[in-house]
TrEMBL record:
PANTHER family: CHAPERONE SURA. Transmembrane segments: none annotated. InterPro entries: OMP_Chaperone_SurA, PPIase_dom_sf, PPIase_PpiC, SurA_N, Trigger_fact/SurA_dom_sf. This is Parvulin-like PPIase.
Amino acid sequence: MSIGLAGLFAVPAAAPAQLADAPVAGIDFSDLAEISVLAESDPMLRKAQAIVNGDVITDTDIDQRLALVIAANGGRVDEAERPRLRLQVLRNLIDEKLQVQEAVSNDIRIADAEIEGAYSRVAQNFKRTPPEFEKYLRDAGSSPMSIKAQIKGELAWSRVLRRKVEPMVNVGDDEVQLLIDRLNAAKGKDEFHVGEIFLSATPESAPQVMADATRIVQQVRAGASFVAYARQFSEASTAGVGGDLGWVRAEQLNDNVAAVVTTLAPGNPATAVSDPISVPGGVAIMALLEKRQVLAADPNEALLSLKQISLPLAATTSQDDARALVTKLQTATQAMGGCGRADEVARGLGAEVATNDAIKLKDLPEALREIMGNLSIGQATPPFGSLQEGLRVLVLCGRDDSAVQAAAPNFDQIYAQLNEERVNMRARRYLRDLRRDAIVDYR
């Protein structure tokens, strides 16, 4: 499941609206078999699509932001979905204008240096330098200016909430302690690492928003990035981190959401992503990333001590010769009697030995993780590799399970979680009021 795209910044956005397909009543086009266009159309012209309290949003702004969404989904966006995405992008940009305007009205300014620093970190997330990232964006049909505008909007809104909303939120110590007591009492029960997309809805817009959420689910199950959709569409505070809600228990979730999350299975979009769920204030889409037990040991946190035996292969090695070397390597390593003879066996094979005394089981590739989790000290994996990379075997020299003991609930972490939930709720109301009072001229 595509759930881990890092680096694209976005602000919480309104739920997308379904485009009407029915013809406008009372208009008959049957007598317009031929028409004459009386003015030239220049597709490169930057035309205003909306003016938000005097600030212009152009076609170019929309197209470049839309290109970010499409690039984040690896270009896998149905043609029928593009008009809906474009409409949603426009709504995102309107919200972004309102958020930046609110920051300015509160004398909040975001320094260019801060935006550039965040942009550089985004580029690093894509394993590119800023110039390389600029080329990537332009090749995708976007631009650095577009993503920097997103960054500015997110930073500005964060500062507004910090100044205007967070001081109004109060979480009592007794509330935090009550949740900690419940966590301790739930030790051994299931805990879920989930992602969320929240779309706000009124009773009047609920059917429309539910239909939009259904389309998002279809796109994600077809291979689109849940993270990208969360960043562009979700109105939850987790939008900036791709919808990642972290580890939660069923008791911490809305009852409707909990009933669904407990039935999901990670690993496959068809089973890991929920259908749209009606919740107070809107619609939620949940994705299950991982599952474990509350305050229970996590074997994937085990710290391993490994030796790697590497046997390079010549470029002229044939498939038959390679298979013979695989058999020879496996026979030698399976019978060598532990790590103490790894260097001796490697020398006999003409292989090299490398040591890593501090690698977590979870950091290994999935196929190796499954094999290594079942090995005893001194045992070796089957050979793996390729003609190009050579053959390798991992030998388990030690395993420290003390690292897998789960930490007790942390007061500060629980406090922060409760505080964020309440700030998130107030932030949605704040943005709703800004939308209600805005003067938006659509062109």
